[in-house]
Amino acid sequence: MAVQSYAGPEFLKGHGTENDFVVLPDPRGELDLTAARVRALCDRRIGLGADGVLRVVPGGLLGEELPSDVPTDAWFMDYRNADGSVAEMCGNGVRVFARYLLESGLAASGNVPVGTRAGLRGVLVGEDGRVTVDMGGAAVTGHSSVTVAGYAMSALAVDLGNPHLVCVTSGIGDLDLSVQPGYDPELFPHGVNIELVEPLDERELRMRVYERGVGETRSCGTGTVAAAVAALRADGGENGVRLVHVPGGTVEVEVTPETTTLTGPAELLARGELDADWWRRIGEPVLVTSGTNR
Ligand SMILES: N[C@@H](CCC[C@H](N)C(=O)O)C(=O)O
After folding, report:
1. Which of 42, 47, 168, 243 could form a disulfide with 82 if both were Cys (CB 3.0 to 4.6 A apart)?
2. Which residues constitute the catalytic centre (predicted)?
3. DSSP code per residue over 91-111
């Protein structure tokens, strides 16, 4: 019987309101994180299971890819969706990421700067354990529509570094999000995250989300900010605070003229070592008769 060696890359598992992630520390930028490896890690049967992967890499190793406002000495969140695609930003992920930096001694308490493809984000881990991230300004980029189970709804396009289409409607619990909702691919050639939002009163709303590159998830941080922006507009305002209830919990979103903030829990629950042989095998090209093999 083969003896397991482990001794592969270190990993941690964490989540923010049940939007869950595999964290991969990569202090020397040595991990070859192919789309196939991301898909295997996120697979809930053959892998660890997650909505996405957060590779922790020094900003200085990104070279020309590093956004201009991210200092080379900041840690960079290299975010991947469960299908292996790359995304610009992840509001729940960045809060889990900052908690990892603090707990592993890679950052001091206070405002933790985190580099993302959408730019620099400041994250504050509170004494109560709740984590707040300054998400930057939300840009309302237009109007479009979304079709869920044959039912067309108007939607507000909101950009948080990554794209969102938000439908403010009622009865969201009854809508089928098991398949990709329809949207205009000409407006969103790289895909879009879709939020269904139901205001409960003037301070609280409920949200479900179909994430680009993942499917329906139990929470999406950037999505909750987009949802709050759309709900505020539906109420005739632009600024304010909203509690957003998602299937995985509750977060608080504040929208001001200058910026937006997202506050909620972020937890790390496991740390371990991947099996080196498994890591090597899932990185190997799969033999196919046509098309790409990754
Ligand atoms: N879950 C995230 C968003 C992750 C990226 C998204 N699926 C995309 O492709 O833009 C969040 O908490 O914001």
Report:
1. 42
2. 90, 220
3. HHHHHHHHHHHHHTTSS-SSE
The reported pTM is 0.94
Residue 162 CB less than 6 A away from ligand 1: yes
CA of 106 to the centre of ligand 1 (A): 24
Instruction: Give the DSSP H/E element, type plus range, for residue 209.
Output: strand 204-211
State whether 154 and 217 are in the same domain: yes
The single-letter code of the amino acid at 12 is L
Q: Within this chain, do residues 91 and 153 fall inside the same structural domain, yes or no? A: no
In the three-class reduction of DSSP (H, G, I as helix; E, B as strand; rest coil), residue 27 is classed as coil
Q: Which residue has the tokens 């603090």?
A: 102
Our answer on whether the CB atom of 94 is closer than 6 Å to any ligand 1 atom is: no
pLDDT for 201-248, tens place per residue?
Answer: 999 999 999 999 999 999 999 999 999 999 999 999 999 999 999 999
